[in-house]
Design goal:
Length: about 250
Amino acid sequence: MKRGLLLIDRGSREKEAKEELEVICKKVKEKGSYSHVDYCFLEVLPPFIKEGIEKSLKNEMDTLTLVPYFLYPGKKVKAAVTDAMKFQANTEVKFLVTKPMTMHKTMIDLVDNRISTTMKENSVSLPKSDVDVLIIGHGSKDPNAQISIKYVIDGLKSTYRNVNHCFLEIEQPDIPHGIKNAEENNPKILIIVFYFLHEGAHVKRDIYEDLNPALKNSKLKKVFVTKHIGTDQKMIDLIIERAKEVEDAD
């Protein structure tokens, strides 16, 4: 049986996002033994879902696994799946839809790895039990987004001194309040995690517009920022695992 896989991403104008998706697709194809792996975007710019599916179906396959490449369940995921499944009626290739990249232990491990790497790069010798963590997420109107990020926070709380979160937009607490709350805990060191899939505009610019002034106005002395999630091997493994969940059940 020949299988294809299509990542459905939200979309970004930043070239780094496309570059990361190309790397991810290459690695997933190699490790997952797919005949075809590609990506498309729900919005912002092409290739859109229609183009992604049409391109995929030009390749010989029996099934096409659609992976909503989102960190949170919610309206964007539902929209992506709804748009993609409209094309099922026009092909004999069977579409399979995975869960998004959420509520999975891999995300806890991935964030922990990002923190560990940042500590090592900055020669932080403190035990993790003395380290405070602030996770910055995007924010969403969907209540499931809160549940998703709290799942990661709860999974890290036994390892670190304090683990809190804030959002770039839409939800509270926002970044200034997140920094203020972190400061109230009087941390020896604060590590800020950028909980974003790509090095898009949010990671490159938008977060810093709020983060830099908030840090400048705080009394925090030792603050380090992790890399975003990006092309980490654990994310490759999670994509393949999510795909196998629905493929094995087919």
